[in-house]
Specification:
Layout: E1 2-7, E2 16-21, E3 30-40, H1 42-49, E4 63-71, E5 83-87, E6 97-101, E7 106-107, H2 114-134, E8 142-145, H3 151-163, E9 166-171, H4 174-182, E10 187-190, H5 196-203, E11 209-214, H6 221-225, E12 228-236, H7 250-254, E13 259-261, H8 265-268, H9 272-287, E14 295-300, H10 304-312, E15 319-323
Parallel strand pairs: 8-9, 8-11, 9-10, 11-12, 12-13, 14-15
Antiparallel strand pairs: 1-2, 3-4, 3-6, 3-15, 4-5, 5-7
This protein binds NADPH dihydro-nicotinamide-adenine-dinucleotide phosphate.
């Protein structure tokens, strides 16, 4: 038997229940992973509330790290005893142990510990594709990155600095502003105190930024378009405040032929080759110490309700993990 988090219906944190289930042997192409740490991500909230639908009853969680205990027929990517990590489907990472498609698993470098691995896979691979593929950034570019003191945000601050990109971050408190600055953000705006669009225009001398990375959604979308220079790209990659309202394409023309994209990690990691290339890039910057993964909240698996409550109440900073 193994302990997992189950939801029978969508709703608040109370719908998550810790239950015992029987874990069968790994099927063909699968590996059984004994998890040492589990990543908590805002996308888990979207699945729990039903904003992103999934079949019920179901599990939650899309990221973990641990040791391979058994492999099914035909598995070539990992072997028993390997230290591994993953980010992605199938949903169900909130568990002591689980069977995963081996094609999703990556063997960890010796110097990356389980806590770091569980915290960095989903958020780190996201920053990797956002900065290298969605908009291939180059030294000298200036970008706006919302929620700069969050899990994805702190990684983005450091990675932008590494690329020679000027990152303007937004945050919800002065403490978060200080944290984002320490992690490499060049300018930080507390959007609860200041109008971020006006400040971005001031900081860029009226020019606007090359790209906006907006994971807030509803509350910031239109203001973010106003921060872009002509031909700039709006990267709408999340909806922490709710889904973006429908808008007219003329909003893009009126602001100087803007581009808009709504990327998802899964689409960018759809092949093993893409996953391995992105992971090599992520493991490289983490192993070298150029990007530090700041695990600032740790919770027991049974305490997942508190973890979600704090994440949704904007009380967390950096990355959060569950310990089985
Ligand atoms: P964070 O740690 O960044 O937490 C979310 C943050 O969003 C909060 O701390 C808060 O920061 C800010 N926020 C603003 N408005 C709200 C609101 N109404 N309710 C709650 N939070 C709000 O989470 P993650 O690092 O896990 O994820 C960041 C975002 O990136 C999420 O939207 C997530 O869905 C998205 N994402 C998208 C991916 C993709 O491929 N498309 C992949 C990975 C993540 P503050 O107080 O500073 O405003």
């Amino acid at each position: 038997m193994t302990k997992v988090i189950r939801i029978n219906r969508v709703g608040g944190p109370e719908v998550m229940e810790l239950v015992d289930v029987e874990l069968g042997p790994p099927g063909p192409g699968e590996a059984q992973v004994r998890q040492h740490a589990i990543g908590i991500n805002f996308i888990d909230v979207y699945f729990r509330t039903g904003l992103y639908p999934q079949p019920l009853p179901g599990g939650l969680g899309m990221e973990g790290a641990g040791v391979v205990e058994a492999i099914g027929e035909g598995v070539t990517e990992v072997k028993v005893g390997d230290r591994v990590a993953y980010a992605g489907r199938p949903i169900g990472a909130y568990a002591e142990a689980r069977n995963m498609p081996a094609s999703q698993l990556l063997v960890l470098p010796d110097n990356v510990d389980f806590d770091t691995a569980a915290a960095m896979m989903l958020q780190g691979l996201t920053v990797q594709y956002l900065f290298h593929r969605t908009v291939p950034l180059k030294a000298g570019d200036t970008i706006l990155f919302h929620a700069a003191a969050g899990g994805v945000g702190l990684i983005a601050c450091q990675w932008a600095k590494l690329l020679g990109v000027t990152l303007i971050g937004t945050v919800g408190s002065d403490e978060k502003a200080e944290l984002a600055t320490r992690n490499g953000a060049h300018h930080v705006i507390n959007y609860n105190k200041e109008n971020f669009t006006t400040r971005v225009r001031e900081i860029t001398g009226g020019k606007g930024v090359t790209a906006v990375y907006d994971s807030i959604g509803k509350d910031t979308f239109i203001g973010s378009l106003d921060c872009l220079r002509p031909l700039g790209t709006m990267v709408s990659f999340g909806n922490a405040s709710g889904p973006v309202d429908p808008f007219s394409l003329s909003e893009l023309a009126n602001r100087g032929s803007l581009f808009v994209t709504r990327p998802s990690l899964m689409a960018y990691m759809s092949t093993r080759a893409e996953l391995e290339t992105a992971a090599k890039s992520l493991f490289g910057v983490v192993a070298s110490g150029e990007v530090k993964i700041d695990v600032r909240q740790r919770y027991a698996l049974a305490d997942v309700g508190r973890a979600h409550t704090e994440l949704e109440a904007r009380k967390t900073t950096g990355s959060s993990i569950l310990l089985p």
